[in-house]
Amino acid sequence: MTWHSTDSVTEFAAAAGDFLRSQPVAHSVPLTLVRTLELDGPHAYGPDDPIFGWWRDTDGTVAGAYLQTPPYPLLLTGVPAPAVPALAEALTGRSLSGLNARAADAEVFVGEWQRRTGAASTPRVRTRLFRLGTLTPPDPHPPGRARVADRGDRDLLVRWIEAFHDEVGEAVRDSGSVVDEKLAYGGLTLWEVDGEPVSMAGTTRPEAGMVRVLAVYTPRERRGRGYAGAVVSVVSRGAADAGATDVVLFTDLANPTSNALYQRLGYRPVEDRVVMEFAA
Fold first, then answer.
1. Residue 167 and residue 146: Cα distance in Å, rounded?
2. Is the N or C terminus of the chain more exposed, i.e. has fewer CB atoms within 10 Å?
3. Which among 129, 128, 91 has a CA at the least distance from the CA of 110?
4. Distance between CA 70 and CA 127 in Å, rounded?
5. Counting Cβ atoms within 10 Å, is residue 53 exposed (0-12), middle (13-18) or buried (19+)?
6. Distance separating alpha carbons of residues 238 and 215, to the nearest angstrom
7. Helix 9-22 vs helix 28-40: crossing angle, to nearest 10
């Protein structure tokens, strides 16, 4: 049982790809990160080289994986219990800004990391992964209609992507590049009222039959009118109609409004995760 590491997304995908695709719901984020790195190159998320790793059990099968695209936190899949402290040992000497992991695994890793490095840690956000069951569109339905965003919406989308990341407390790589990437495959949808955009939702490219809903944003002055639920319902239905077997999204557990909204639409909880920040 040991960790294997590389800085090559190609090598990582060859070694751990089947493992990631075996659980596309739980592995939603690493699957989409790997796809972006394969398409846009190793510096798609920042100037520093990413790192990757996979855990092999005694029988040689891959049973866990991690990746980090600096400056973002280390992302850890579910892993067997012995793999968590072993990962802290394997990464000792490397600078980590934080960790994104299942809550129980995060507790073990953080304790071992602090023992080895002295780095203090604080929880930044606790999230819940949801999977769509039976879609239940909003009732009553708000006024307006949905349409797929195009390049004529780019300036608005850049502002909204930046506002979204500001609100959730996340750094964003070049927001223009983020928007351009999604426009290239129709990955942003607007809800309009009388021709004016009032809300937005994004989706990832399909990976192993999975699509993730993300970047759901409504300007503050437009909130409370059902627009977010309407646009999320549309993109969820669109993903399923296009062949997705799993439609997923993450919520911030500190936001009861969004958690309640998505459950009304038919999303059901899968697992809880935590993002920890490490001090120097």
1. 23
2. C
3. 91
4. 20
5. buried
6. 16
7. 150
What tokens does 45 get?
Answer: 């998320």
Determine contact, residues 83/64, Cβ cutoff 8 Å.
yes
Taking every pair of Cα atoms in the chain, the longest distance, rounded to a whole number of angstroms, is 61
In 3D, which of 231, 214, 212 has the Cα closest to residue 222? Answer: 231
Backbone angles phi, psi at 47, to 5 degrees: -75, -20
Q: What is the pLDDT of residues 2-49, one digit of tens each?
A: 999 999 999 999 999 999 999 999 999 999 999 999 998 999 888 899
Distance CA 121, CA 114 (A): 8
Inter-axis angle of helices 256-265 and 227-241, to 10 degrees? 40
Other Cβ atoms less than 10 A from the Cβ of 68: the count is 25
d(CA 246, CA 24): 8
Identify the three-state secondary structure at position 266: coil
DSSP state, 187? -
| Bridge partners of residue 249, in order along the sequence | 130
- What's the pLDDT tens digit per position in 226-269? 999 999 999 999 999 999 999 999 999 999 999 999 999 999 99
Around Cβ 225, how many Cβ atoms within 10 Å?
16
Model confidence, pTM: 0.93
Which residues, including other chains, have CB under 8 Å from residue 107's CB and lie 6 or more apart? Answer: none
Nearest partner of 278 among 75, 169, 119, 109, judged by Cα: 119
| Length of the chain, in residues | 280
Contact residues for 255 (Cβ-Cβ < 8 A; gap 6+): none
The amino acid occupying position 1 is M
